[in-house]
Design a protein that fits this description.
102 residues; mainly alpha; 0% strand; elongated
Length: 102
Amino acid sequence: MKQLLRYFLVILLWIAAVVLWAAGVTFWVFVAIATLHAAELLIIGFRTGREYGVPAVRSIILCLLFGYVWWLPIRKTMKSEDFTAADFIEDGEEPWREQVNA
C-alpha cells in the first residue's frame, strides 16, 4: 500500500509540474523532475532493472516516470535475497532436472 501511495504522489507531482508549465507560471519544476529522473536512469535505474531481469524498455519508462520510487524497492529486494551473479551463469549444469538414461 505504501508503494502504491508513493506512485500516486509521483504522478501528482508530474501533473502539477505540467499544469504549472502549461499555465505559464514556471517550467523549472518539470525540467528539474525530468533531469533528476534521467540522471537516475543513467546512474542506477537501468542497471538495477537489468540486474533484476526487468526488460530494458520497461526499466527506462518506469525510471523516467517514477525515479527512485521505482528502483529503490527493487534494490532492497535484491539485497535481501541471497542470490549472487554466479547463480545466474549459464554453465549447462542443471542439477534440479532429472537425467534420463535411455
